[in-house]
Amino acid sequence: MKRLTNKRILLGVSGSIAAYKAPDIVRRLQDLGAEVRVVLTQGGAKFITELSLQATSKNKVHDNLWDKEAELAMGHIELAKWADAILVAPASANTLANLSAGKASDLLSNVVLASDAPVLIAPAMNQKMYGSLAVKDNLSILQERNIKFISPEYGEQACGDIGEGRLADPGEIAKQVSEIFSSTKLTGKKVLITLGATIEAIDPVRYLSNHSSGKMGMALARACIEAGAQVTLIHGDVSIPLSNKSNNISANSASEMHQAVMENIGNQDVFIACAAVSDYRVKNIEKNKIKKENKTLTLELIPNKDILADVCKLNHKPICIGFAAETQNLIENAQNKLKNKGCDAIILNDVSRADFGFKMNDNEVVFLTQKSSLKIQKNSKQKIGRKIVEIIIEKFL
Ligand code: PMT
Q1: pTM, entire model
Q2: Within 37-117, where are the H helices?
Q3: CB proximity list for 108: less than 8 A, separation 6 or greater
């Protein structure tokens, strides 16, 4: 399989003499299996025609933020959602300034702002301009935002100067784009992830729930999608946006989540139970709001079905990975869950900590199987998610 098979790359071409190399970049990306769409800035159009980019990309070129027809067909938000990665090559000094300032002045800058896809920039300009403090500052701002930078080459320039600022080789640019999708190890695999907090109604107004934000589950989902998996998310209450590259199914209560998981588990290869599921629900949910009275109120709670344990009991069970949210006797409690629920691995996190766990952007976990224990030190949930997915692939697939 080619490294960019099924990947959708949006190429932004801005005003640099190197724009004449854009059709070659399109071809190199296509050679690696990508589908390419081009956004051409006004400056870019001074150096390369829309027609040559349309002919090579085999798609209509997008060049106008205010084009009513284009908005009806594929407007800036659709383009932003469509892209698996955005490559700006060549990136002129003006485009770098627009992007670093977060401007929404043309179609390309709008698409970059509206997308959560990774962005790569390949600058190309005169060596003096490239060496200027303003351009260097803009580049470092963009790199701090995790925008990947493809260094220009040193050599003779179109203007006759010699120095750093020539657009990187199109083959090298395409290679660097493919490297951001470094793993295709889950291509063809199906992964079902539960995430977020379940909600157990008390009456039409009140409910029992917990602190899960869905961040850990979404980090795992992104890591699986990056590795090429087809992902289904069954989510309770979450406080972050879900991916638009997964099949997202909403389930409020533990019972609804149990039902949604059982209906969708059939042909899954991996099940990751990251949701914080309520162990109990209210036995009798009041039809009307419970009135305040000056006496003790007792709620009778009954146990919910255990989703993870039930998936582990299936005849053709997928690889089952659970989480253990613990506050004491961490390892012992997690090992008991691993055994009692019958899963292949359990990921322990200490949810009593103030600096990671529930709601936070960071986590620290221990990946436990019957035979092994591997600590993943405190890091962003995104990085922890990637590491967990790597271990799952290494150990089970
Ligand atoms: O969402 P965040 O804010 O990013 O926080 C992440 C997290 C702390 C919620 C997450 O990392 C985590 O630990 N998720 C599991 C929370 C939990 O319910 O743990 P537990 O120890 O109570 O349950 C053990 C396992 O059984 C879990 O995989 C859980 O999904 C599953 N379970 C529990 C009860 C139930 N009825 N059905 C289940 O499937």
Answers
A1: 0.69
A2: 50-57, 68-74, 76-82, 93-101, 107-114
A3: 12, 14, 39, 41, 88, 95, 98
Sign of the alpha-carbon dihedral angle for 108, 112, 117, 119: positive
Rounded to the nearest angstrom, the distance between the alpha carbon of 325 and the centre of ligand 1 is 6
Q: Of ligand 1's atoms, which has the minimum distance to the CA of residue 381? A: 4
What is the distance in A from the centroid of ligand 1 to the CA of 187?
Answer: 27
The pLDDT assigned to 182 comes to 65
Within 6 A (CB) of ligand 1 lie 194, 212-217, 254, 273-277, 279, 304, 306-308, 322-325, 337, 349, 351, 357-359
Q: State the distance from the centre of ligand 1 to the C-alpha of 277, rounded, in angstroms.
A: 6
Q: Which atom of ligand 1 is nearest to the CA of 214?
A: 1
Strand ranges in 264-356 using DSSP code E only, listed in sequence order? 270-273, 280-282, 301-303, 319-326, 345-350
pLDDT tens digits along 288-343: 999 999 999 999 999 999 999 999 999 999 999 999 999 999 999 999 999 999 99
**279 C-alpha to ligand 1 centroid (Å):** 10
374's CB contacts (< 8 A; 6+ apart) are: 366, 367, 368, 391
For residue 113 the two structure tokens come to 């702002």
Name the DSSP class of 276: B
Residues β-bridged to residue 91 = 123
Residues of the chain with CATH 3.40.50.10300: 190-396
Report whether CATH 1.10.150.120 matches the domain 8-179. no
Beta bridge partners of 11: 38, 87
- What is the CATH architecture of 190-396? 3-Layer(aba) Sandwich (3.40)
Question: Which residue's C-alpha comes closest to atom 16 of ligand 1?
Answer: 276
Nearest to 91 by CA among 27, 56, 143, 29: 143
Residue 296, classified by CB atoms within 10 Å of its CB into exposed (0-12), middle (13-18) or buried (19+), is exposed
303 Cα nearest atom in ligand 1: 36
Q: How far apart are the first and last CA of the chain?
A: 18
pLDDT, tens only, 247-300 = 999 999 999 999 999 999 999 999 999 999 999 999 999 999 999 999 999 999
Separation of CA 195 and ligand 1 centre (Å) = 8
List, by residue number, the catalytic residues. Answer: 159
* Ligand 1 atom having least distance to the Cα of 219: 4
> Ligand 1 atom 23: the closest Cα is on which residue?
324
